[in-house]
Amino acid sequence: MKDIGHQLHDLIRRLYPICRSITGAGLRETLHIIREQIPIELREVPSGTQALDWIVPREWNIRDAWIKNSAGDRLVDFRKLNLHVVNYSVPIKARMQLAELKEHLFTLPEHPEWVPYRTSYYKESWGFCLSEQELQRLRANEDYEVCIDSSLKDGYLTYGELLLPGDSTEEVLVSCHVCHPSLADDNLSGIAVAVELARILGQTARRYSYRFLFVPGTIGAITWLARNEQVIPRIRHGLVLTCLGDQSPITYKRSRRGNAEIDRAFAHVLRHSGQRSDVIDFFPYGYDERQYCSPGFNLPVGCVMRARHGGFPEYHTSADNLDFVRPEALAESLSTILAVIDVLEQNRTYLNRKPKGEPQLGRYDLIKSAGNEKERRMDELALLWVLNLSDGEHSLLEIADHANLPFATVKDAALSLLAVNLLTPR
Ligand code: ZN
């Protein structure tokens, strides 16, 4: 049995070659592979459907694309790397010289071996992405044959959805984008972690219901929001997952609310993790938290990532590949998110049943930890904090933060006090 990090990396490896986009066969194939792992349902929304201020676009599919020289050699070959075609390129078959072709070529001169990733979803155009080195090999007087065998037709936007019902109908939303082609960290790492999270939670007793969304970026989240206004009031917490496999420390981006329970839970877990990490405020760009946190929804949805949107050289280039994502980083991302979910699941608010003076704790059969003196002292402090702040106004997470104690210590203290009837649920 492989460790979890390698399992996650294996799924990324399997999905990596597929040419995904915001619609089309590659997106469907990706969702079918996810459906082999967890029982998502596929939703198909027809082109032309109004979704908030947007319209579901025509479906894009691509079979092949190339730039050939006069000898017929494929100098730029979609079959070797799907990033070579500007995603959503309209079909073209033509002969042209370099001067004319150049208007449709994109490179990264600062990283001459890398191929950029570009899209043109909402403006009809075509183009090729190639490395600066490949561009330098093209000659001015040569006649090039250019072909993009794509289609842009009325069809569907596809997304995947899984609801894991819990004891409560209140929901935790977990969303990731599934529209990027061969890019490993920026989208496949989020997908892999979300799949594993769903599998683990599917086998666990759950207080909350969990809704997993595998959606094309922006238009997918907007389409889901437009179709699910009745679900939105049930969403109590949410996370957008992205870029979870690189070696940067974990960054949590707060929801627009800034002090939602998910914001406090994530900050708490990171603070007590002993690892380098960062918590940053919401801003209205990045990933689909932009949609979930738009003012008309203002959902308590944060974003968890390692490398930040647009903030690393490999971002949206061929260097965001299978070597850029590491099993250990994927495993640590998953375990951190599970720790946050554990806080959400266990966080409650209690009332002290003997609030006048401290109870005489020695008279109660309180569970003593088997730990060392420092741990026993921490447990005793936790009992006192829980008793003092369980006035119905403070959740266990708030008590843990006030006391600067790990959530688990405070939760265990509360369970002990509950067992001897010193606490009651609010
Ligand atoms: Zn991206």
Protein topology:
Elements lengths: L3 H12 L9 H13 L3 E6 L3 E2 L2 E2 L3 E10 L5 E4 L14 E6 H4 L3 E2 L21 E2 L2 H5 L6 E11 L2 E9 L6 E7 L6 H19 L6 E7 L3 H9 L7 E7 L8 E4 L7 H11 L5 E4 L8 H4 L8 E5 L21 H20 L2 E4 L20 H17 L1 E5 H8 L3 H13 L3 E3 L1
Parallel strand pairs: 7-8, 11-12, 11-13, 13-16, 14-15
Antiparallel strand pairs: 1-10, 2-3, 4-5, 4-9, 6-9, 10-12, 14-16, 17-18, 17-19
Zinc ion binds next to loops.
CATH class of the largest domain: Alpha Beta
Strand order of the largest sheet: 1-10-12-11-13-16-14-15
Name of the CATH architecture of the largest domain: 3-Layer(aba) Sandwich
- The helical percent reads 25-40%
Q: Structural class, from secondary structure content?
A: alpha/beta
Q: Give the CATH topology of the largest domain.
A: Aminopeptidase
N-C termini distance? 44 Å
List the quaternary state of the chains: single chain
Biggest sheet, open or closed, and with what strands and sense?
Answer: 8 strands, mixed
Specify Rg, calculated over alpha carbons: 25 Å
Number-wise, the strands total: 19
Low-confidence stretches: none
- Put simply, the count of helices is 12
Rounded mean pLDDT is 97
Strand content: 15-25%
CATH superfamily of the largest domain: Zn peptidases
- Domain module count: 3
Bound molecules: zinc ion
Shape: elongated
